[in-house]
Specification:
- There is one protein chain.
- With 484 residues, the protein is an alpha/beta fold.
- The protein has 19 helices and 12 strands.
- The strands form 3 sheets. Strands 3-2-1-4-5-6-7-10 form an 8-stranded mixed β-sheet, with helices on both faces. A two-stranded antiparallel sheet has the order 8-9. A two-stranded antiparallel ribbon has the order 11-12.
- A hairpin with a 2-residue loop joins strand 11 and strand 12.
- Helix 8 packs across helix 12 and helix 11 crosses helix 12.
Length: 484
């Protein structure tokens, strides 16, 4: 056994785990690598990690013995039972004050439970979001750690050292207690779902209504990437549009239009429902993937159900492309506004003191939703840490007003010509709902009271719940539960 002691151990040698280890090695840290299938350890050392300081371990016992104290063990394994299984195996091998880090996409309530259970045993637990894909893991991810606050001093230098940097600032900071890190990562992934769906709708409009070629669309995305939409996802979309298969045709057009998902977008939508926050765009992005998976049904339906007779845009193409750009920008603002609304409500409910400006900074580099746009979000929360909604910040208020006419033209044109734009449309509906002083929910409350005696509040007497005997024979007893 080597006399050199490792700074941190990493369990899980899939591509993300391997790349994170190599990233840590580049920054001067000695990493102990372990994998359940131990043959992968030897393969990694003989190939990708050849010539590095990485140490291989062939058992968890050996791995723990190779670590400096307090021991830091990071897992990059599949969420759910595999995480609990490894924790169960690690606990007898560790001592009070040692740190276990879950770097997978775990559900935040699981992280809350694990932090409490391990805290009772004297162990420190961190649930950290890791974003940026393979390239980010290798050269600088966005890291969102949360959990036992006492763990942060033990991992801070490593995490901030290997993370992406924007203007010298690390895209990593302590998020908050318990499951805060994984909650923020979940919302990040939900926003990622929304961004991807919005870009796909822009692509669909340009392809279906304007008959733009892939080369022309690549040029459009390239231009957009030079302005306020500059982002990782716009950049890779440009590259995808340009990418050709071996036969010279564009590969993207050969890919089946049925999108997969791993669950974090769905979790975001579920959390939005649980906390009563209208995160409508992310919800529509998830449902759009569900609808895409009904591909065989859609093909049959397309042969039986007719849409509008006119399906091509006959106006100024260049002007409409600019309208699409503005609709994308405005919808993107709404998506992020909704994401931050959800984080604010969860923080209130769970007692987390989240720093929203710091979260925006963490997302400015290394992650899938990185964009110049996040700098403006950081500034908004620096100006007003109690900002209730990004739409009320002067920068975003002005930006969305400048896009509004184009946004409405795009949605109405898409409706008239039969192209589905669920994310563009729901973003606009939310915007109109949020800026409306009086919504028709008074009628909903009357209906609820009429059929279920659920009570209602009067405009001039909020807080007092009243029941009306609408039919004259319904009685005056109201329901015992009320939820606005």
């Amino acid at each position: 056994m080597t006399s050199v002691k490792g700074d941190i151990a990493l369990i899980g040698l899939a591509v993300m785990g391997q790349n994170l280890i190599l990233n840590m090695n580049d920054h001067g840290y000695t990493v102990v690598a372990y994998n359940r299938t131990v043959a992968k350890v030897d393969q990694f050392l003989a190939n990708e990690a050849k010539g590095t300081k990485v140490i291989g371990a062939h058992s968890l016992e050996e791995m723990v013995k190779l670590l400096k104290k307090p021991r830091r063990v990071m897992m990059l394994v599949k969420a759910g039972k595999p995480v609990d299984d490894f924790i169960e195996l690690l606990v007898p091998l560790l001592e009070k004050g040692d740190v276990i880090i879950d770097g997978g996409n775990s559900e935040y309530r699981d992280t809350i439970r694990r932090a409490k259970d391990l805290g009772a045993k004297g162990l420190l637990f961190v649930g950290s979001g890791v974003s940026g894909g393979e390239d980010g893991a290798r050269y600088g991810p966005s890291l969102m750690p949360g959990g036992s606050p006492e763990a942060w001093p033990h991992i801070k230098d490593i995490f901030q050292g290997i993370s992406a940097k924007v203007e010298g600032d690390p895209c990593c900071d302590w998020v908050g207690p318990e499951g805060a890190g994984h909650f923020v990562k979940m919302v990040h992934n939900g926003i990622e779902y929304g961004d991807m769906q919005l870009i796909c709708e822009a692509y669909h409009l340009m392809k279906s209504l304007l008959d733009l070629s892939n080369a022309e669309m690549a040029n459009v995305f390239d231009e957009w990437n030079k302005g306020e939409l500059e982002s990782f996802l716009i950049e890779i979309t440009r590259d995808i549009m340009n990418f050709k298969d071996k036969d010279g045709s564009h590969l993207v057009e050969k890919i089946r239009d049925a999108a997969g998902q791993k669950g974090t977008g769905k979790w975001t939508a579920i959390a939005a429902l649980e906390y009563g926050v209208p995160v409508t765009l992310i919800g529509e992005a998830v449902f759009a993937r569900c609808l895409s998976s009904l591909q065989s049904e859609r093909v049959i339906a397309s042969q039986h159900i007719a849409g509008p007779t006119t399906t091509k845009y006959t106006g100024d193409k260049k002007a409409f492309i600019e309208d699409i750009r503005k609709a994308l920008y405005a919808s993107k603002i709404v998506s992020y506004a909704q994401g931050f609304m959800l984080m604010r409500e969860a923080a209130k409910e769970l007692g987390w003191a989240l720093n929203f400006g710091a979260i925006a900074l963490m997302w400015r580099g290394g992650c899938i939703i990185r964009s110049v746009f996040l700098g403006n979000i950081k500034q908004a929360f620096e100006k007003n840490s109690n900002l209730s909604n990004l739409l009320l910040d002067d920068f975003f208020k002005t930006a969305i007003q400048n896009c509004q006419e184009s946004w409405r033209r795009v949605v109405s044109t898409a409706v008239n010509l039969g192209v589905p734009t669920p994310a563009f449309s729901t973003a606009l509906a939310f915007f109109d709902g949020y800026r409306t002083a009086k919504l028709p929910a008074n009628l909903i409350q009357a209906q609820r009271d009429y059929f279920g005696a659920h009570t209602y509040e009067m405009v001039n007497n909020p807080g007092t719940h009243i029941h009306t005997n609408w039919t004259g024979h319904g009685g005056n007893v109201s329901s015992t539960t009320y939820s606005a």
